[in-house]
Amino acid sequence: MKSSQHKTTEWSDSVTLTVSDNKPRPVLTVSPSWLSPGASVTLNCQVEHPSAGWSFYWYKAVPDLSEKSSSYELLPDGSGTAQDSYIIHGQTHTAGYVCRAGRGDPEYHTDHSQPKFVWSADVHSAASLTVSPDRVQHFTSDSVSLTCEGNFTEWRVRKFSEDGRLSDCRRMTGSTCNIYTSESDTGVYWCESGSGEFSSAVNITVQNDGNGPILVSPVHPVTEGASVSLSCSLKTQKILSNVFFYHNDKLIQNDPRGELKISAVSKSDEGFYKCQYSGRESAQSWMSVKGADSSSSPVWLMVGLVCGVSLIIILLLLLYRCRQSKYSCFTRSIQSESHSPGSSTNHGVNQNETHVYGSLQHGAPTLCLRQSPPDSATEQMNTEMSPTLLLRLKPLERKGSIINQMKLLFTLK
Question: Where do the Ig-like domain residues begin and end (predicted)?
Answer without folding.
Answer: 24-101, 213-288
